User: Fold this.
Amino acid sequence: MTETQKQAELRPAAWGLELADWTRVVAELQLPTFRAKQIWHSLQERLIGSWDELTLLPANVRRELAERFDVAALRVREVREAADGVRKLLLACRDGELIESVLIPAESRWTLCISSQAGCAHACAFCASGKAGLSRNLVAGEIVGQALLAAHWLRRAAPASASAAPARTPPLRPQNIVVMGMGEPLANYDELLRALRILNAPDGLHIGARHITISTCGVVPGIRRLAEEGLQFELSVSLHAPNDSLRTHLMPVNQRWPLAELLGACHDYTDRTNRIITFEYTLVRGLNDQPPQAQELIRLLRGWKCHVNLIPLSPVAEFAGQAPEDRTCEAFQQALEDVGIATTLRRSRGRQADAACGQLRLRRLHQPA
Ligand code: SF4
Assistant:
């Protein structure tokens, strides 16, 4: 069965409707307008599991809604927790596809890393998500649902996991969203933006636009389209290499949109939006972590309004590379900072939870049935 046939058999996911959509639906059902907000709140805050729980609506309306919309597009299949407090959620879609979200605690907040596709077509060398290829795009309800389920899971799991929580326990909802999980978000542009509008909506989770980051491997048409939207979301671009030959080796997408084209689109994006782009650069021992590569990167980025995140490689079974030693990472960072390029050296988190992109799903796909 093709993806389109599978999707056609499913009712639309209620989590993917905006308040304006519910206003239209209640008008079609000849209900007063205030019913739209009641439905929206029940989906966003109470996380109802069935239309029958919405007892403030007449039974015939609940039946009608049940015939037209699926109330939940995902369910939690498995939660893994690492000693550093990172939680990885393996989620099952209605058609059996598995996707992942990762909750990362900091002192006073939770960051939620969400997926935009089931699998990924781009096959970056050190990413488990790309290993099994792309299954399909997620619909907006499946993207929104990851945040709703994470918030719900945090509220329910709080007492049991208190011992593993950091000293200052963050509030029980994600404050930051990074679309950096499985999939290439700009390859699923329309559903992604619909989902982000819902997550940003004042009557919903209300996650500030500047607390939502879209991370791309370098899909140039998507970057150009995003520049025209006038939105406040943050943009992050995975670079991982300072020249075309190494980048093509690590990221096949570079053959389609090489560095000059990618950085040209990034320049235009910052000119157009006046916003800073964050470049992600995973440091791999002996491959892209040496002084010559730092100098190449400096030649690309010097004088830009940008930020560079340096991330020592998180080990994945599918890639033979290793993380550099700390002093190598620090020397790389220092070289960039010496010429005024703002840089953060990040640490991988959640290793025991298989927290790097796609690892938990890949383990499940490879498990015997
Ligand atoms: S890093 Fe992102 S774009 Fe690359 S294969 Fe993984 S999910 Fe896809």
